[in-house]
User: Fold this.
Amino acid sequence: IMNLINRFYDIADGKIRYDHININKIKKADLRRSLGIVLQDVHLFTDAVRENIRYGKLDATDEEVIEAAKLANAHSFIEKLPMGYDTVLTGDGSNLSQGQRQLISIARAAIADPPALILDEATSSIDTRTEKIVQEGMDKLMQGRTTFVIAHRLSTIKNSDCIMVLEHGRIIERGNHEELIAAKGRYYQLYTGNQIEQE
Assistant:
């Protein structure tokens, strides 16, 4: 679904509308610029922390970089690095923890200030203590934006307006958290760990 929204593939049949516009009528570059993406695997450049954040908006000021880092909950750990925002990251950010790398990725999305976001398993490879910090950063980033969250950790999506449960590429359930728990279907089973009682 995310590949189709980004037009990495074009659909042969049907329509995907983005702000009531068929996405086939939107230039790929414009479409992708309007989507902020935070992935499970973060790619960082061999460059200063500030430049890695600025990659989301190349003409951003230093003040905007710091604001984005604060929004993403990254500012406090960046300040503690040997040279703060001027610390050079090497080896895809191997001198940082997975959680810290993810916070920089969130700051990068924040500085781009896109109207829509895609969060693809953004907390799956970090421990639960770090997940809370990353989740707070993502919650702030999601405010006022249409956000697609792909997650196996259901705590990430509990507050979503609409949750879709996919199985073998098909939507098998749709609703908010309360509705899906009450339905006692697949989502309920995944969320609670309880087996579904067969009638």
Notes: The chain has a mean pLDDT of 89. The CA atoms of residues 187 and 193 lie 10 Å apart. Strands lie at 17-18, 21-22, 35-39, 47-48, 88-89, 116-120, 146-150, 163-167, 170-175.
